[in-house]
């Protein structure tokens, strides 16, 4: 076990050249990100799930009812043990040959059997009320965390000049606000990982599961090796469009089509601007070009000293 842990926490993978874990231990003068800090995300993710249950029941559900969104589900299929066995164990979409066999076995016409399978498939679809409550939770959290990120980042020098993300790296002290921001984001993604198995089942389940895994890995990696400054910029950029998407879904469930269309257009504009414009051009390409020019003009020690 010790060998596996030593391999996993290999300094050559996590840290810059000539930097060791001992260099990033907390001191009386400065606090640095520690891997054990991230354990806090697990109990917070559980708490977040509990808050979500309370929010959906006592906040989102009354809002949905006030918007005339009902919990009425689809029509229930007539109980039938033979058809239920075929549905659960063999196929939810029987072909023509199987339909004819079931028709003879049950003495039903083929159209009635097709109707039964359609109703049975619809039973597994969640109600509009449940969809609305889920979207309202994600909207509320997304709006909160994005607002917090903007309020936090506007007070930092690296929002206005991305070179500050790397001055004196990796010896950049960890502030309480930055720590809270990271733990909050990581806890949310862990809660999504857990709730995905009980939430509305969608066709992109596997894709979203992989998305959450990658997000958790990137947040963890950037925190442990103290790339937290640039990490906060990436988090804020990616959060900027999420609330608009969930708001558009809520408007769609409430049958406010014009508002839904407007919100979706706004979401598309923000998404394209942040993910395909600001992120690659400002956060990556712009800083890289400025850093190369700076390194050619002056020695490294003068750059490091700017942020001290």
From TrEMBL:
<keyword id="KW-0472">Membrane</keyword>
<dbReference type="InterPro" id="IPR009057">
    <property type="entry name" value="Homeodomain-like_sf"/>
</dbReference>
<dbReference type="InterPro" id="IPR006634">
    <property type="entry name" value="TLC-dom"/>
</dbReference>
<comment type="pathway">
    <text>Lipid metabolism; sphingolipid metabolism.</text>
</comment>
<feature type="transmembrane region" description="Helical">
    <location>
        <begin position="205"/>
        <end position="224"/>
    </location>
</feature>
<dbReference type="GO" id="GO:0005789">
    <property type="term" value="C:endoplasmic reticulum membrane"/>
</dbReference>
<dbReference type="Pfam" id="PF00046">
    <property type="entry name" value="Homeodomain"/>
</dbReference>
<feature type="transmembrane region" description="Helical">
    <location>
        <begin position="262"/>
        <end position="287"/>
    </location>
</feature>
<keyword id="KW-0443">Lipid metabolism</keyword>
<dbReference type="InterPro" id="IPR016439">
    <property type="entry name" value="Lag1/Lac1-like"/>
</dbReference>
<feature type="domain" description="Homeobox">
    <location>
        <begin position="83"/>
        <end position="127"/>
    </location>
</feature>
<feature type="transmembrane region" description="Helical">
    <location>
        <begin position="38"/>
        <end position="55"/>
    </location>
</feature>
<dbReference type="GO" id="GO:0003677">
    <property type="term" value="F:DNA binding"/>
</dbReference>
<keyword id="KW-0371">Homeobox</keyword>
<keyword id="KW-1133">Transmembrane helix</keyword>
<keyword id="KW-0238">DNA-binding</keyword>
<dbReference type="Pfam" id="PF03798">
    <property type="entry name" value="TRAM_LAG1_CLN8"/>
</dbReference>
<keyword id="KW-0812">Transmembrane</keyword>
<dbReference type="InterPro" id="IPR001356">
    <property type="entry name" value="HD"/>
</dbReference>
<keyword id="KW-0256">Endoplasmic reticulum</keyword>
<feature type="DNA-binding region" description="Homeobox">
    <location>
        <begin position="85"/>
        <end position="128"/>
    </location>
</feature>
<keyword id="KW-0539">Nucleus</keyword>
<dbReference type="GO" id="GO:0046513">
    <property type="term" value="P:ceramide biosynthetic process"/>
</dbReference>
<keyword id="KW-0444">Lipid biosynthesis</keyword>
<keyword id="KW-0808">Transferase</keyword>
<comment type="pathway">
    <text>Sphingolipid metabolism.</text>
</comment>
<protein>
    <recommendedName>
        <fullName>sphingosine N-acyltransferase</fullName>
        <ecNumber>2.3.1.24</ecNumber>
    </recommendedName>
</protein>
<dbReference type="GO" id="GO:0050291">
    <property type="term" value="F:sphingosine N-acyltransferase activity"/>
</dbReference>
<dbReference type="GO" id="GO:0005634">
    <property type="term" value="C:nucleus"/>
</dbReference>
């Amino acid at each position: 076990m010790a060998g596996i842990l030593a391999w996993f926490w290999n300094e050559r993978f996590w840290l810059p050249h000539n930097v060791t874990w001992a260099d990033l231990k907390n001191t009386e003068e400065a606090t640095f990100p520690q891997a054990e800090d991230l354990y806090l995300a697990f109990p917070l993710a559980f708490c977040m799930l509990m808050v979500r249950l309370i929010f959906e029941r006592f906040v989102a559900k009354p809002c949905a009812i006030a918007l005339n969104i009902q919990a009425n589900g689809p029509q229930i299929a007539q109980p039938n043990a033979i058809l239920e066995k075929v549905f659960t164990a063999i196929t939810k979409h029987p072909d023509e040959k199987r339909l004819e066999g079931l028709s003879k076995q049950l003495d039903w016409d083929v159209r009635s059997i097709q109707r039964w399978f359609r109703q049975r498939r619809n039973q597994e679809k969640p109600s509009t009320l449940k969809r609305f409550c889920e979207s309202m939770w994600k909207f509320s959290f997304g709006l909160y965390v994005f607002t917090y990120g903007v309020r936090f980042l506007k007070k930092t020098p690296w929002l206005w000049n991305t070179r500050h993300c790397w001055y004196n790296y990796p010896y950049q002290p960890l502030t309480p606000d930055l720590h809270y921001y990271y733990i909050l984001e990581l806890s949310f993604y862990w809660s999504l990982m857990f709730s995905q198995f009980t939430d509305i089942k969608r066709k992109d389940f596997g894709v979203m599961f992989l998305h959450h895994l990658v997000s958790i890995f990137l947040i963890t990696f950037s925190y442990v090796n103290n790339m937290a400054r640039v990490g906060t910029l990436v988090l804020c950029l990616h959060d900027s469009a999420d609330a608009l998407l969930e708001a558009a879904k809520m408007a769609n469930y409430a049958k406010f089509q014009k508002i839904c269309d407007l919100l979706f257009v706004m979401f598309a504009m923000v998404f394209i601007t942040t993910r395909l414009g600001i992120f690659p051009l400002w956060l990556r390409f712009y800083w890289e070009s400025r850093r190369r020019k700076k390194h050619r003009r002056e020695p490294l020690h003068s750059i490091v000293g700017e942020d001290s």
